[in-house]
Task: structure prediction
Amino acid sequence: MSLSKKIFFISSSLLALTLFFLGIYYLSFKKPADKVAEVEKKIEQASSASNNSPPKSTQEPGIFAVTNEPVIGPSYIDASHIIKYYSKSDGKTYEIDPDGLGKKTISAKELRDLAGIYWSPDKKKVISKFSNGPGQYKFSYYNYSTGKGLALGANLDYVIWKDDNKIFYKYFNPSSKERSLNIANPDGTDWEKIVDISFKDIYIAPVPQSGLVSFWNTPDAFQETVFQSVSIVGKSAKTLFTGKFGADYLWNWDGTRSLVSHTDARGGSRIDLGVINDQGGEYKNLEIPTLVSKCVWSRDNKKVYFALPGSLPDNVLMPNDYDAKKFTTTDTFWKVDVTTGKKERMIELEKMQGNYDATNLFLSPDEDSLFFINRID
Result:
């Protein structure tokens, strides 16, 4: 008997962000249509050896729109089984059922120039990112439980939640020209510097189930990425993984492994997806040409659901051109066992309706539903 699996799509672009719901029942691997992209053929050939007699699904997959309004910062609320999101057009906050019903306004306040939303793990607090000119941003904090909020201090480059009560952020001191990684309360009080930072632009990610925080320079095809971790008590940073260009990372749920996507060479156009352990060792190339922004870990830390881009335009620079939204991809949907490398298609090509460029994937608590932002429309 096949396992039921639904996938939800959240669609986004600068002109229109459309929230989609892909309700599909999980399909075991089958051979693709004749016009499948070459990159898919290689993956299917590698997978078919271990899938000689795949069971067939008795259900039809499909794609269903949840809402046609622009959205930003969608997040699944586990306890109530709803999706919270901000409207890209008016900055108001809404909640909606995953099937597109029961839309409600959470906050009618209009937030202009909204560029990013970062929910706390309990989804009761939020850090909002606003555009403040070309390449410049400002941040604010809001607590939905108390109804209170405030603007955070200036010169913050990057903010992310550590847990429900603390945030990590990168700070630039305009006087000393120093950059640092810091920890503070969500309102910016009781801040402490953790470590100095040498790179101008970085990504930050807490290492799950540990007292560590990781950081790395923003992916650039011409720059070697240095993946580091440091204790929140402020010890010296430790380099976990380096030697790859344009690399990006995604921790699993227990902090024992991280995905890493990177170019095949300096200034390259091909992306490889691999996995490393928590010390940066045991690198394994999963032979999947996709970005970590198109991936999500399963709760058991064994599987990764991912969107696989079709052929890319000629002479693109990865991930730079993709991040700059110079083109979109045409994705299909798969999962991989990171231990065995076994890959399985989640929805067959002949069942795909329309084109999807999937990013920002997240799962429902029981993992029968997958959500993502589609950049195409």
